[in-house]
Structures are given as C-alpha cells and as structure tokens.
Amino acid sequence: MSMISELVDYLAKALVDEPDSVKVEEDRMGDRVEVRLLVTDEDRGKVIGRGGRIAGSMRQLVKVAAVKEDVRVSLDIPD
Fold first, then answer.
1. By three-state DSSP, how is residue 12 classified?
2. Which pairs count as long-range contacts for 12-16, CB under 8 Å and 24+ apart, including other chains?
3. Quick one: CA dihedral 71, 50, 48, 79, positive or negative?
4. pTM of the predicted model as reported, rounded to 2 decimal places
5. Domains of the chain listed by start with CATH number
6. Does residue 73 come out as left (phi exceeding 0), alpha (psi in the -120 to 50 range) or beta?
7. Secondary structure tally for the chain: helices H, strands E
8. Residue closest to 65 by CA, chosen among 78, 50, 75, 55
C-alpha cells in the first residue's frame, strides 16, 4: 500500500464507527493513481460530510501527498 492509500485509510478509520470495515483500493496507471474508499452505508455520510466538506478536504490532502510521490491522484467514494 502506498503512502497515499495509507493516508486515506488512516483518515477514514478515524472518522467512522466501524473502522474494521474500511477498505482502500488503489489502481496505478503510469503516473495516475485512482484510490477508492469503501465504507459501510451507515458510515458513508461521516466520510463525505455535510455538503461534501470532509470528502473535499480528504481529496486536498491526498493531492498534497501525490505531489511528494510525483503522481496525479483521484479519490473516489462509490455509492
């Protein structure tokens, strides 16, 4: 697991009620990294936040980590 995925995992586990159910998947395609955060339906709102504020903040932090690894990253929280 890369530093980016570890960061997403750490942040999500701190936010949810069921940290054992948090799963982070990563796909690398050259200099692009796609990170998917999977949580239970009950915890999805806690990860997204009111108006998407928490998810937006997580995306900004992930982009900062991506600069250090010299990649482009996207964070997806599927339904």
1. helix
2. 12/37, 12/39, 12/47, 12/58, 15/43, 15/46, 15/47, 15/54, 16/40, 16/43, 16/46, 16/47
3. negative
4. 0.91
5. 3-76 (3.30.300.20)
6. beta
7. 3, 3
8. 75
Residues 41, 45, 46, CA angle at the centre, nearest 5°?
A: 110
Query: In the structure encoding, which two tokens stand for residue 71, read together?
Result: 């990649």
The Cα–Cα gap between 39 and 65 comes to: 22
Q: How far is CA 55 from CA 30, 42, 51, in A?
A: 25, 16, 9
Q: Are 36 and 1 in contact (CB under 8 A)?
A: no
- Cβ-contact 44, 23 below 8 angstroms: no
CA 45 to chain CA centroid, Å, is: 14
Tens digit of pLDDT for each residue in 4-18?
A: 999 999 999 999 999
